Amino acid sequence: MSSSHEPSQPGSHMFDYKHVGGRFLGLVALAIVAFAAVGFGAFSDTKQFAFSYLFAFTFFLTICMGGLFWTLVHHAVDAEWSVVVRRQTENMASLLIIMGVLFIPLIFVAPKLWYWMTKLPGQDILLDEKWPYLTKEFFWIRAAFYFLFFGIAATWLRANSIYQDTCGSARYTLLNRKITFASLPLFAVCLTFAAVDWLMGLDYHWFSTMWGVYIFAGTALSSLCVLVLIITALRNAGYLQNIVSLEHYHIMGKLMLAFTIFWAYIGFSQYMLIWYANIPEETVYFLRRNTETWQILSTALVVGHFFVPFLLLLFNFGKKSPAFLCGMALWILSMHLLDVYVIVLPALHKAGVVVSWLDIACLIAIGSTLAAVFLKRLGDAPLWPLRDPRLKKSIALKN
Amino acid sequence: MSNATAEHPEHLTEDEKQLVRKPLVLNNRTMGWISDYISSIVEGKTPTWWYVSMAITVPLTLMCLALLGYLISTGVGVWGNNHPIGWAWDITNFVFWIGIGHAGTLISAILFLTRQKWRTSINRAAEAMTLFAVVCAGIYPALHVGRVWMAWWLAPVPNANAIWQNFRSPLLWDVFAVSTYFTVSVLFWYTGLIPDLATLRDRCTTKIRKFIYGVLALGWRGGNRQWRHYEMAYLILAGLSTPLVLSVHSVVSFDFATSVVPGWHTTIFPPYFVAGAIFGGFAMVLTIMIPACAIYKPLHDLVTTDHVNKMCKIILLTGSIVGYAYLMELFVAWYSANPYERAAFWYRAFGPYWWAYWSMMFCNVVAPQIFWFKYFRTHLVWVWVIVQFPNAGMWFERFVIIATTLARDFTPSAWGMFHPTWVDICTFIGTFGLFGTLFLLFIRFLPMICMFEVKAVLPEADPHHGEANH
Fold first, then answer.
1. Interface probe, candidates A178, A273, A282, A310, chain B, greatest B C-beta count within 10 A
2. What is the pLDDT of residue B462?
3. B-chain residues within 8 Å CB-CB of A265?
4. CB A180 within 8 A of CB A255
5. CB distance A250 to A399 below 8 Å
6. Fewer Cβ atoms within 10 A, N terminus or C terminus of chain A?
C-alpha cells in the first residue's frame, strides 16, 4: 500500500477494496504460481520440500499464534492502549485457520521430517520408551487439537469483537475476557507441544524443557513486528490517522525492546545451561548448529537478533518514529526468519548450509496466501473496535 | 460510542459498571490527609501492639544471632547437613528468602517502567520487605561455607594470597548477583524515600528528630531542579533494577541447573525460578500488608481491595507459570527416556519425601487457583489465608529441589536422608524474627507508604482536573 492510493473515504473505519484490488488479485496469482512451483519441487525433491515447507510454515505460524497471544493478553489484563490495534491482532490470529489448512501438505511428507515415524518398535529403545507420546495416531490427534483450539479461540474472540462494533454492548468485552481466561492455559499447552512435536521432534533424541518458552519468545516478538508494519501500512494509506498515535508506537517500541531482551534471555539460558553441563544427549542440538557453515548463521543470530535491536531500541529516539520502528520490525522479522531457519534446516543439511530455491518458494507460497486472506479480513470488518468501552481512553493515550 | 468511564455512572448498564476503573485512592482523600495520616504513623506515640510484636521478634532475632555464633564457634556440623545432602536447609532457606526479596523491586521498577500507577501505595513497604528478606537470605551462603572468616575470598581482591576466585562457578556469580541486587535495591529504595524524609523533617517538633530526618533527607527542598534530577535518577535506577530482578534468581537457578545432577539440570530453571520468586514475593507482601492495613484502618483507602485483587491476579499468573514449569519438568524427564531423570522425579513424587513434593504441588499450583474467583481475591481474610500456601509452598519447592535430589546420588551406596537439627530449625525460625524486627522498625521510623507518589495519582494531581468534558 502506498500513499498514492488514497482510500475513497480518508479516515474511514472500513478498508476500501479499491485500494488494493489489483494487488489482491496479484497476491492470489502469486500464491497459485508459487504453490505450483512448490508442488513441482515436492515431487522432484520431496525431502528438501518437506523441510523448506516446515521452515516457511513455522515462520508464519509463529506470527499468527502471536496475533492470538496479543489478543489474549489484551483481554486478560484489561488493557487500554491496545484497543485501537486489537482488530489487527484479531485479524492476524484469524489466519490460524488457514494455517490449519496449510498444515495438510506436511501430513504427506511427515516421515521425511519426523524420522521417528519410520522406525519400527524394537529398533530404538529411546523411541520405544516414548510410547505412546511418539505414535502416529496420538501425533495427528494432537495436531488436530492444536488447530481446533487455535481456530475456535481466534474466531470466537474476533466474532464477539466485531459484533460489539454494531451493538456496542460491554457484555462482549466481558465475554471475551472469560474466553481469554479459558484460552490462556490451552494456548500455553498448544504452543508448547506444537513446538515439541514439530520442531523438537525433528530429532526425537533431543530435549529441552525451555523449548516451548523459546518458541513463544520468537512468537510474541515477531507478531509484534508484523503488527507495527500493518498499522503503519494502514496509516500510510490514510486509515487510523486519528486513532493510532505516536504514543501507541512508543508502547509497541517498548514491547519490542522487552521481547528482544526476553528472547535473548531465554535463548542464552537454554544455550548456556546445555553448554555448561556438556551432556552429549543435549549438546547434539547446538553442536550441529555451531559447526560447519551453520556457525556463521548462529553467530549472526546472536548479533542480529539481540545486540543490534537491543542497542537501537534501548534509546528513546526511535520508539516514537513509525519509520524507525518499521525498519526495526523488518530487521527483527528477518532475524526471526533466520532463527526458524537455524532451527529447522540443520536437521536436513547436517554438513552445512545449503540454500534451496524451495526455501524461498515455500515462503512466497504461504506468505502470499496469508497476505491475500489477510487483505480480505481487513475489508470484512472495521479497522478498529468502533464501540469498545475503552476506545476513547485508548485514542487519548499518553505515556 | 459507549464509554464505561463516563462521568455519570448511574446511566451505565450492569456490564459497563463492571468495566469502570476503580479509583486508586478511596473516600476522596486529599493530599493533606495523606501527608498527615502517613506521617502520624511515624510521629505518634508508639502503640502497644508494636511493643508486643517486638517482644516476640527481638528474642527470635537474638536466638538466630546466638545460634549463628554457636555455628561459627563449633562448625557446620551443628546443622543436619551430611553426605550426600551437603546443601540442606541452609541453601533451601537462602533461596526461600532471596525469592521473597523479589516482589519489592519488581513492584518498584518493572511496574514503574510499565506505568502501573497502582504500585504507588505498596512499593515502599514491598521494597523494604525485599531488603529485609535479602538480609535474611545473605546469612546462609555466608555461613554455610564453614570457615566464615574466609568468606572474603569470594571477593575478587588482589592476588595477595595466591587465591583466585573461580569465575566459572555459578556460586561466585551468585555472590555478585545478590550483592549487586542488594546494593541497587537499597539505592533505589533510599532515593524514593528522600522526598518523604524531607516531609517528615519539615513536620518534626523536636530538634533531634529534625536533625536526623534532615540528614537523611540530604537537603531536599522540593525545587524544580531537584525534582527533575530525582525523576531522572529514579528512572535510571528503575532501568538498572529491572534486569537485576530477573538476573538474581536466574543466577540462583544456575547454581543448580549448570550441574549434571538429574532433577537439577534443566533448561527451564531460570524463568521458572524468577516466576516462583515473584509468586512467593507477592505472597509475602500480602502477608504483611493485610495485617498492617488492619491495624491502621484508614490505609484501606490507599491500599484498596482493588490493589489486593491485582496482587492476587499476579500470584495466580505466576503460580500458573510455576505449575507449567513443574509439568514441563515432569514431561521432559519422561520424554528424555533417561532412566536417571525419570528416577529423580519418580523419587520426588513417590519416595520418602513424597509429602514435601505433594505439599509443594498443592500449595503452589492447586491452592492459588482459587484466585480465579473474584470473591477470594477481594475478601481480605481469605486472601491472607490463601497466600500462606504460596509462602509455605515456595519453601517446600526449594526443599524438594535441594534435599530430595541430593538424597539419591547415582550409586545407591551414596543414598541418604536429611534430618534437620534443632539448630537448623531454630535458626530458620530466628530469621523470621529478624525479618519481623526490621519490618517493625521500618513501620515505626519511616513512612510505610510513598506519600508523594500516592498524591500524584489523585484525580486532583491531573492538571486538567475539574475541566468539563476534557
1. A273
2. 79
3. 246, 250, 270-271
4. no
5. yes
6. C
Backbone torsions φ then ψ of B266, nearest 5 degrees? -150, 140
Nearest to B103 by CA among B88, B124, B82: B124
Judge whether B65 and B426 are in contact, CB under 8 Å.
Answer: no
- Pairwise CA distance, residues B276 & B270, whole Å: 10
pLDDT in tens, A23-66: 888 999 999 999 999 999 999 999 999 999 999 999 999 999 99
Q: Does A129 touch chain B (CB under 8 A)?
A: yes
Distance from CA of B331 to the nearest CA of A (A): 8
Helix or strand holding residue B385 (H, E) = helix B380-399
Distances in whole angstroms, Cα of residue A355 to Cα of each of A114, A341, A361, B257, B467:
21, 10, 11, 36, 63
Q: How many CB atoms lie within 10 A of CB B110?
A: 18
User: Is the pLDDT assigned to residue B90 strictly greater than 50?
Assistant: yes
- What is the radius of gyration, based on Cα positions, of chain B? 24
CA distance B466 to chain A (A): 17
Answer whether B263's CB lies under 8 Å from B345's CB.
yes
Question: What pLDDT does residue B9 have?
Answer: 63
Query: Can you tell me the mean pLDDT for B155-182?
Result: 84
For residue range A75-92, what is the model confidence (pLDDT) as tens digits? 999 999 999 999 999 999
pLDDT in tens, A287-338: 999 999 999 999 999 999 999 999 999 988 899 999 999 999 999 999 999 9
CA A368, CA A34: separation in Å to the nearest integer?
Answer: 9
Note which residues in 72-91 of chain A have CB less than 8 A from chain B: 78
Task: Please tell me the distance from the alpha carbon of residue A352 to that of residue A345, in angstroms, as a whole number.
Answer: 9
Q: Please tell me the predicted confidence (pLDDT) of residue A162.
A: 97
CB contact under 8 A, A170 and B254: no
Q: What is the distance between the alpha carbons of residues A305 and A319, in angstroms, rounded to a whole number?
A: 18
Cell of B378: 477481594
CB contact under 8 A, B250 and A130: no
Confidence of residue A1 (pLDDT cuts 50, 70, 90): very low
Inspect the interface and report whether the beta carbons of A391 and B1 lie closer than 8 Å. yes
Residue A6 has a pLDDT of: 44
pLDDT in tens, A229-254: 999 999 998 899 999 999 999 999 99
Best of B267, B309, B341 to disrupt the A interface (most A CBs within 10 Å) is B267
- Are the beta carbons of B246 and A265 separated by less than 8 Å? yes
List of residues 6+ apart from A169 with CB closer than 8 A: B13, B15
> What predicted TM-score, i.e. pTM, was given to this entire model?
0.94
Chain A and chain B share a number of CB contacts under 8 A equal to 101
pLDDT at B7: 53
> Is-cis flag, bond preceding B463, omega within 30?
no
Task: Report the greatest alpha carbon distance in chain A.
Answer: 68
- What residues in chain B have their Cβ under 8 A from chain A's Cβ atoms? 1-5, 13, 15-16, 18-19, 115, 243, 246, 250, 254, 257-260, 265-271, 320, 324-325, 328-329, 332, 335-338, 372
A207·B324 Cβ contact <8 A: no
B16 and A389: CB-CB below 8 Å?
A: yes
Q: What is the ipTM, given to two decimal places? A: 0.94
Gap between the Cα atoms of A341 and A339, Å rounded: 5
Query: Of A170, A208, A273, which has the smallest distance from its Cβ to B19's Cβ?
Result: A170
Distance CA A163, CA A381 (A): 10
Residue B154, C-alpha cell as written in the block: 569470594
Q: Which three cell numbers stand for residue A174?
A: 466481558
Helix (H) or strand (E) holding A323: helix A322-344
Distances (CA, A) of A92 to A17, A157, A230, B391, B470: 18, 12, 10, 40, 34
Nearest to A170 among B13, B246, B268 (CB): B13
